Amino acid sequence: MALTLTLTLIFSLLSLHSAAPPPPFDKIYAFGDSYTDTGNTKTSTGPTAFNYVSNPPYGITFFHRPTNRYSDGRIVIDFVAEALSLPLLPPYRDATADRSHGISFAVGGATAIRHGFFLKNNVTFNLVPQSLQTQLVWFNKILASHGCIDLRRTPKECGGIFGNSLIWLGEIGANDYTSTLGSSIPKSTIQNIAVRSSAGFIQAIVDKGAKYIVVQGLPPTGCSPYSFSLAAPEDRDAAGCVASMNYQTYRHNAALQASLEALRRKNPAAMIVYADYYNAHLTVLKNAGRYGFKEPYRVCCGYGGGEYNFDVFNTCGSPAAATACANPAEYINWDGAHFTEAAYRVMTTSFLNGSYCSPPFRYLLSRKVESS
């Protein structure tokens, strides 16, 4: 509620002549991996390490049933939609859903790099066939159904879709690194191709007419129990996370931000915002108690007890780990790789109301209001 009220205040300040200004956007189109997936992935189609997303206790906190979201409840894009006074986004694969206010194309396990690249390099570990390119193909089908081909040839049709639409590119790229663990492919190669793929995606939708875009960086991937299970115990940084993975993620995010700056220069009419997932998450970890969290690393829905309550062979929703902790709101980590609803709420607030968007999200709102 606090998130929505704060944004309502921002809207009012940006539109002083209206006591109740309309929502700045009427649609959100979201892309990414499991952190942004609102239901495109099911147990039979997801990554093998977390392939019970269709089973309880997923979804217990808000929906009171599994919705194929990788959490106990709502995720970042849900809180973004609520803050903008919009309905929650249906998954693209639900063809019967109301799509009038947007769609989530995100897929659990999705990669930034095309699927074919991994197959050519004999990489199949924890891999799903959908990539960011797949999501662009799906999106293009939606746009074509509304007559939008590109901004140059169909300006009216594309303008009608994108004029009041927010594009949210959730985190994408973490699975590219995970899938290639143990392979001979250099991490620098993965970084270069993944960042280039993300930049190509953004340019493609800008060419269609996208004007307001938020791009999430990767969270500190070394801070999850799943990462702890893959790395040597001595590979730790000052925060207690896997140092090599966090360094890799830090470099990826730096390259992504440089790429976004180049896109801004090339497309001055588009508003491209970077959401700093990395530092937002680290801030929550370092100040867990301030946000009401008692368990910064231990898994709420897991198996085996111990320091982290995590077993990669018995993940959340499996017959051996079908129960969750009594109070997920006291935990940051839900299943070993994904967050609880409570953690997602805090991080969404830091994006929309805080200092973890560059330029600030309120600046994007002001640009939108001025153009209306």
Can you describe what's shown?
- With 372 residues, the protein is α/β, with parallel strands linked by helices.
- The chain has one domain: Rossmann fold.
- 38% of the residues lie in helices and 9% in strands.
- The chain contains 12 helices and 8 strands.
- Helix 2 links the parallel strand 1 and strand 2 (102-104).
- Helix 7 (187-208) packs parallel to helix 9 and helix 10 crosses helix 11 (341-352).
- The chain is globular, with a radius of gyration of 20 Å.
Short summary:
38% of the residues lie in helices and 9% in strands. It has 372 residues and is of the alpha/beta class. Strands 2-1-3-4-5-8 form a 6-stranded mixed beta sheet, with helices on both faces.
**Number of β-strand runs:** 8
Widest beta sheet: strand line-up: 2-1-3-4-5-8
Question: What is the assembly state of the chains in this entry?
Answer: single chain
Shape: globular
Q: How many H/I helical runs?
A: 12
How large is the share of residues in beta strands?
Answer: 5-15%
Overall mean pLDDT stands at 92
- Judging by the overall fold, what is the CATH architecture? 3-Layer(aba) Sandwich
Gap between N and C termini = 26 Å
Helix content: 25-40%
**Any low-confidence stretches, pLDDT <50, length ≥5?**
11-19
Number of domains: 1
CATH superfamily: SGNH hydrolase
CATH class: Alpha Beta
Element order: H for helix, E for strand? HEHEHHHEHHEHHEHEEHEH
In CATH terms, what is the fold-level topology?
A: Rossmann fold
Radius of gyration of CA atoms, rounded to a whole number: 20 Å
Q: Output the structural class.
A: alpha/beta
